[in-house]
Amino acid sequence: MTMDDHKPALQRKIIHVDMDAFFASVEQRDHPELRGKPVAVGGGSERGVVAAASYEARKFGVHSAMASVTAKRKCPELIFVRGNFETYRAVSKQIHEVFAEYTPLIEPLSLDEAYLDVTENLKGIASATQIAEEIREKIHAATQLTASAGVSYNKFLAKLASDQNKPDGLFVIKPAMGPSFAASLPVKKFHGIGPATAAKMNRLGLYTGADIRAQSLDFLEQHFGVSGRYYYGISRGIDHRQVRPDRERKSIGAENTFFTDTTDFDTAWGFLEPLIDKVWTYVEAKQIKGRTVTLKVKFSDFRIITRSRSGLVPVASREQLAQFTRVLLEGVFPVGKGIRLLGVSMSSLGEKAEETQAQLSLSL
C-alpha cells in the first residue's frame, strides 16, 4: 500500500487567508501620508531589521528580515515606522470574527493568516471559492484592508495558492490540478522547505516537485529523515494534515535566516528584535505565557546550538522576553563562525496572562 492509497473519505475544502503586507498596510490605512509610499515597519536604527514592508517598498527588493541599512540602500525613499502591535491585534480580532461566521475550524498561523476548513460550514455554502470571496469582501468592509486567499483540498496547496495572485487575489487549486501544480514548483517555493533544505535538495539534483516525486520514499527518508515522508506526499499534491483550531502548542517560536552570515553582535541582536515581537504578539493574543526562553543559533557550517533558561513563573512582558533573549545571545558571543540563522521561542506554556504578575528571574 502506498501513501496514495490513504485517501480521506471526504474531499476537504480548505481556505488559506493571508493579509497583504499586514503591518505596513495597517500603518498606511491609519496614516494617509504613508499611502502609496514605500514603508517599512521596524528597523529604523542602523543595526535594525525590517519586520514588514509595503508593496511599494517590495518593488525595490525590500523585504522582512532585511537589515535596515540594506533596505535604505535599495530604497533611499524608504519610510521607517515603529509599528503599533495593539492596533495589529485589534485588527486581527476583526478578521477572525469574519472567519468565525463561516466555520469554527480555524487554525491561526499568526495575526494575519489562518487556515479554515469549510467542508461543512455554518452557512451551508457548497462552494469554498464563494466562501473565500465573501470572506475577502467582508474583511475589506470591516478593516479597509485587502486579503489574498488560496482554496484547495489540503493545507499545503491552499497555502501555495494564496501566494499566486497577491496582493488582493484569489487562486483555486482543484483536485485534478494538485499533483501537476506541485510537480511544476521549484522546491524553494514549497511551504516547509527552507533555504538550507532547498540547497541540500539542489545538491542532490532535486530542483522541482517533479524531481522529488521521481525519488523513492526510501531515498527521501535516507537524506531527510522523518521529513522525507512529508516531501514524498506534497510532491504528489498529498497532505492529510487537518485544520486544528485547538492544537495544543508545546512552544511558540519564530526564526529567520540571514541573507549574509554575520559575526557581529549588534547585527544579530537587531535581527532578533522582530522575532521577539512576533513571539510576544502571539502569546498576548492567545493570553498564554511561557516559563522557558530558548535561543536557537545556526552557524555557517550548519551546526545548530540552543541556549535555554527557565524560571519558576512565566515571562511577564515583552521587555522581559527581550532582556532574557539578549542575555542568552551574549552568552554565545564571540563566535568563531558566521551565524546564518537565529530563532527565539518560549515553552512551558499554559498560564493565563492575567494570572501572571510575578517577575521572572533567570539564574545564569
From TrEMBL:
Which top-level enzyme class is recorded in the Swiss-Prot or TrEMBL entry?
A: transferase
One function term, GO molecular function aspect: DNA-directed DNA polymerase activity
Q: What is its main location?
A: cytoplasm
Q: Which UniProt keywords are listed?
A: Cytoplasm, DNA damage, DNA repair, DNA replication, DNA-binding, DNA-directed DNA polymerase, Magnesium, Metal-binding, Mutator protein, Nucleotidyltransferase, Transferase
- Cofactors that this protein relies on: Mg(2+)
Name all UmuC domain ranges: 14-194
Where in or outside the cell it occurs: the entry states: Cytoplasm
Q: What InterPro entries does the record tag this protein with?
A: DNA/RNA_pol_sf (IPR043502), DNA_pol_Y-fam_lit_finger_sf (IPR036775), DNA_pol_Y-fam_little_finger (IPR017961), DNA_polymerase-Y (IPR050116), DNApol_IV (IPR022880), Rev_trsase/Diguanyl_cyclase (IPR043128), UmuC (IPR001126)
Which PROSITE patterns does the protein's record reference?
UMUC
Task: Report the catalytic activity.
Answer: DNA(n) + a 2'-deoxyribonucleoside 5'-triphosphate = DNA(n+1) + diphosphate
Q: What does this protein do?
A: Poorly processive, error-prone DNA polymerase involved in untargeted mutagenesis. Copies undamaged DNA at stalled replication forks, which arise in vivo from mismatched or misaligned primer ends. These misaligned primers can be extended by PolIV. Exhibits no 3'-5' exonuclease (proofreading) activity. May be involved in translesional synthesis, in conjunction with the beta clamp from PolIII.
Q: How does it assemble?
A: Monomer.
From the Swiss-Prot or TrEMBL record, give the protein name.
DNA polymerase IV
The organism is: Asticcacaulis benevestitus DSM 16100 = ATCC BAA-896
